Amino acid sequence: MDSENKWHKQETPAIHAAGLDLGYRSAQGLNLLASGISFDLQQGELTCLMGPNGVGKSTLLKAIMDQHPPIKGAVFLGKENVREISDKERAKKVAVVLTEKIPSGAMTVLELVALGRVPHTGWWGRLSPQDQSVVNKVMDMTNIKDLAGKKLAALSDGQRQTALIARALAQDSPILILDEPTAHLDLTNRFEIMYLLRDLAKRAAKAILVVTHDLEVAMETADKLWIMEARKPLLTGSPEDLMIQGGIQNMLPGNKWQIDAASGKIRLKDPARLPVIDGPAHLSHWIRNAFRKNPELSQPERIVVSDQPFRILLVFADRKEEVNSIAEMIGFLRQRAKKNNSKTTR
Amino acid sequence: MNKLTPYKLLICLILCLLLWLVNLSLGSVSIPVEHLLQRLLGIPFPRSSWEIIVMEYRLPKSLTAILAGIALTISGLQMQTFFRNPLAGPYVLGISSGAGLGVALLSMAGTAFGWQFMQASGSYWSAIAAASLGSIGVLVLMGLAAWKVRDSMTLLIVGLMFGSAASSLITLLAYFSAAEELKLFTIWSMGNLGSTGWEKLGLLSGAVLLGILPVLTSVKAYNAMLLGENYAVSMGINFQRLRWSMILSTGILTGSITAFCGPIAFIGIAVPHLARLLFKTNNHTQLFPAAALLGVLVLLVCDSISQLPGMATSLPINAVTTAFGAPLIIWLIMRRNFSEEF
Fold this sequence. Notes:
The structure holds two protein chains of two kinds. Chain A is of the alpha/beta class. Chain A is 32% helix and 23% strand. Chain A has two domains: 2-254, 3-Layer(aba) Sandwich (Rossmann fold); 276-345, Double Stranded RNA Binding Domain, CATH 3.30.160. In chain A, helix 4 (129-141) crosses helix 5. The longest helix of chain A has 20 residues, at 326-345. By secondary structure, chain B is mainly α. Chain B has a single domain, classed as ABC transporter involved in vitamin B12 uptake, BtuC (Orthogonal Bundle). Chain B has helices spanning 5-25, 33-40, 48-83, 95-113, 124-148, 152-176, 179-189, 198-216, 219-225, 229-234, 239-261, 267-279, 284-306, 317-334, 338-341. In chain B, helix 5 (124-148) runs antiparallel to helix 6 (152-176).
């Protein structure tokens, strides 16, 4: 979709790849995970890479970091083929935050962030005044100055993730890649981390690629979405476009789930039949939610819901019933379904 | 970035020098420290026998202890960081078992195959040659394994298996060997700092120097390894180069010490932990010198204990280092935050 956008500035993308085949060679032959993968990662943008487990997201990251070369095609960092630059040059272009746990809990936050300077220091690893000032700057940007002397083992999950992001920033690379940085975090921290990344993309003009399973947060924060499906080309575009044009639906396997176009949330697909519900939208939403979860309920012909006091009126061909809560409604409808069942079997 | 580190290092250095003097003065014949100092200034000892005791026996022995302390702790620290395993030590790659097998073949295969290499009087040069060949053999095997497998945990397991295989061969040899040959081997395996004369000391210090060279160029890489292999690689560290440098360095260091002194137990595992504990840092620019100095300190203390005055003979050094090392390791593991502090 990018290529059709005539307003888009034509710059050299931070990462460029065309027609990558990703997979593993083994004794049994070639195990191709994905083929025909093409993308451009732009400077100053936050891009989220999504897709089901096992589809090849990690393999794609490894291809970018030159840890596992693609079967076919090449990844370019700026204008250079990642396979043709030295490890040190690559480290100056790409910094990562990985999913793995940091083994050393005794290290302080400051020491961790300072390690980001490794590609820039000499053979002994001594920090120059310039290195020190970079370390200071990134700790300022990520707001972890207060944590400088704390041991990693003493940090909360959110703080540790922020410290790891600061370490990656200290590497002073134009590209940042993060593998599920919001996994294991609570809702607030998930948003905090993603907004921090968005802010860094804009303020420090970084190209940031985040692998995430968190569609909700991605919809809120990403400039671009890349959707990866088994053995299909990468689907790229702005999250809003992909939502409206239905690209996101492709992420969901089978037909049990669907994405609510209004909220961007994943939910159970509507059952074949839902009752007609009259009443305020925020109330009818939750009643529909209850019906989706319990498809076995007997369905009234019509439901009228009213606010203050909360009342649900269930209208059947033969009777009407008023209840005060959704739990009560479910109880009533379940009993009715049972009665109907025993009638038909008899 | 611990500001106290230079002072702590200085204190360690001074303690090392003091202990060196104590080490020289202690033994079945006590030589007062003031006479040692005077001898340093060129004033001869009041008794000529002291000159022989110090110059021909105690000085080379203490220098051996110093070299062994440096070599074993630096190998141990490399192994612990590389394998991210607090219980890794200089011998996890099977070096000492290889050396042991070499010496066992030399000393005990006599009865089994009708050879007679090692007399009861014991030519130590042939023991050194056998131990060196054994460790080089294991090193070559480990090199082949490292070439084949890329995973460091696999390498660790392969090393342990080599060690077990060598030990079982030694057991087999021991079973068929005569009593005095068995005793010869057992004494070798207890460790001995005192069998290196001046001529062997030159060779040993050359080997230790050679083994330390790869460490000097890998300090930064070891720091990056604190974050694990994948992060280190992402920061441009050449992991394969680090691995070869680690195998080469620890192979030369522990191989040469084991060849000259036998397998010295526990120092290589325990002292790096002691260094982390006392210097409260994980930075290898500080940990390597700290561990080396502490290694010298501990081994000098252990050697001094093994030759305390009033004893006609000295105790086997491994008995002393183990008596020191085992409680330290138990204490370390029982501490609540050990895994967080490592």
